[in-house]
Structure prediction request, 458 residues.
Amino acid sequence: MPALDKVLSGLGLLVVAAPVLLLAVFFGAFLCNRRLQEHTIGRLIQGTITISLLAAVTAGVLMLWHRLAQHPIELGDWVITPHYHLKFEFVLDLLSLSYAGLTLVLCATIGAFSTRYLHRERGYQRFFVLFGVFLLGMLTASLSDTVETLFAGWELVGLSSVLLIAFFHERPSPPRNGLRVWVVYRLCDVALLLAAILMHEINGAGDFDHLVGKNAWPEHDPLLIGPHFTLLGVLFIIAAAGKSALVPFSGWLPRAMEGPTPSSAVFYGALSVHLGVFLLLRVSPVLDSSIWLSVFLVLLGLATSGYAYLVGRVQTDIKSALAFASLTQVGFIVAEIGLGFRYLALVHLLGHACLRTLQFLRAPSLLHDHHQLENAIGARPREESVRWEGRLAPGLQRWLYRFALERGYLDSLLDKCFARPFVASFRALDALETRWARLLDGERPPAAKSKAEPRPPS
Prediction:
């Protein structure tokens, strides 16, 4: 039905167009050197999310009514050659609409909370500009049907996440931690970029249809055979591990708590930390191409859950404890994907994201209530110990405690193996660029000082 196709295409585009218009308003206000009022920003945010959510719900209802499993939305061909095809495309199906709807509902909740939580904050408008970039990136990644579209949304989410980690830039710690997170994101984004290149080498295009067939998610054509698909699956797993803080990239997760509580809730408690899981669900047929990929995914998820449980037991601040609690469930979801339970993983993802958002937003008032309870009873409430911990040998208990307190030494491993070489390489490139610029300007490089300087005459 051509009329239905046009309506669904229009609704799908409206879901993404609303955040674009919001960012255009912010950019126009910046060009006009006007500072928007807090109530105006709040209304713009809620109005934008409402429009996108109504469009997504309407598209889902129409597809259910007409029993459509999926609907592609082509945005045009950008590059066409005999061996190369680049295009941007959206798709409306169960997975994309579920994750887009989750994004809009939780962003609406976070937006309403942030308008009050950040009242009279100096960076109020800056926060919501980055919040709009994050919303646009999440919706773009959720509805993507090509790896190029996914990569565009993926990068917007990463950029906005890092800038919000460094939101309180007047302090030294947030920018430093934001840089650490950015290093991990860059390394794992390379894996996603290599996966996109490999997809083009295999099929000449980055469409997910060439991997999973024309069937709607989670059905697929079992035609993925060969070592190149195994390599493709490994690259997707590395990209997902970096975005979802799976082992061994879990060291950056507590550093991400430097941002405001609303951004911590929507990023590392609900949406951004599940984006890697969403990628694995989207490319799950590739993971089925090799039994070793499925086994590796199960072991990776269980290892992440065990690590997050141990480290979360010794956290002294509530945001880090909730972040590691989220990581524990993310590990279980990854293991479910490896076992082939696609629907269970999707339901687990949706329910867990809603729960963690509520816990993060409730955390400040919960601490206030807890302090009032301590003042009322005159002592701290007793904490219940875990039974299995008391059965361990004292030496093993001390080792596990130190392992958890050091966060599995993953942070120091990240610092030595990734962060320092990354920063050192960029400093070397900066010095090389400076020398090259001076050479082009006609300046002579400074002469190197000799170690043995001549003694002055007596």
